[in-house]
Amino acid sequence: MDIRKLFNFGRKKHSQEFQITKLNKPKPVTIGEMAAGNQTAASNDIARMLEQQNMATRILAVQDGEHSTALVDYAVKMAQKLDCEIIALDVSEEPLNHSGPRREREINRFNQRARHNAETMLLKAETMGVKCRHIIQVGNQEETIKALSQDDKSIRYVLIKPAQEQVSVNKRQARVPVVDLKCSSL
User: Fold this and answer.
1) Shortest CA distance to 112 belongs to which of 72, 71, 65?
2) How confident is the model at residue 159 (pLDDT cuts 50, 70, 90)?
3) How far is Cα 142 from Cα 110, in angstroms, rounded to an integer?
4) Does the model's pTM come out above 0.70?
5) How far is Cα 147 from Cα 143, in angstroms, rounded to an integer?
6) For residue 171, is pLDDT > 90?
7) Nearest-angstrom CA–CA distance, 136 and 156
8) Is 12 helix (H, G, I), strand (E, B) or coil?
9) 144 contacts 95 by C-beta, under 8 angstroms
10) Distance from C-alpha of 40 to C-alpha of 30, rounded to nearest angstrom
11) What single string gives the DSSP state of each residue in 54-110?
12) What is the mean pLDDT of the chain?
């Protein structure tokens, strides 16, 4: 006895016919209904959502001037899969802890390190067919990310360099923190 027949496996000889029905589009919700009285805020939110929806998506890859192979690999692969552009951001407020001529030296050192490390990402992105540009900022990381994401509404994902402890413990697979700005209030 054939075991497939016993359990009814395999293709059936006669397939059922399916009827495809076109669904009507839902009626749009008016601004008044959505905002429940706050029409200005609702119209601003709708305009921002439409603007984001029509723009090309960008990934903001944030490092601190020190190279992170895990972040570079993840950002380039993600950008290739999503067919989007990368903005490589190097930001640090450490040089601001110094004063006078030392501050200038630390800022210059940070800029040189950031440019050198960005070359790796730019080369890898170019070989994978991903557009990439680089920005260097001296200042607070959170404030810089917030300002950039407000200025450039096409930034949807923010990838942050994993903590050094996490990389040394998990050398094979360091987890890169990802923030989806469409779903968060950053």
Assistant:
1) 65
2) very high
3) 18
4) no
5) 6
6) no
7) 19
8) coil
9) no
10) 13
11) HSPPEEEEEE-SS--HHHHHHHHHHHHHHT-EEEEEEEESGGGGS-HHHHHHHHHHH
12) 77
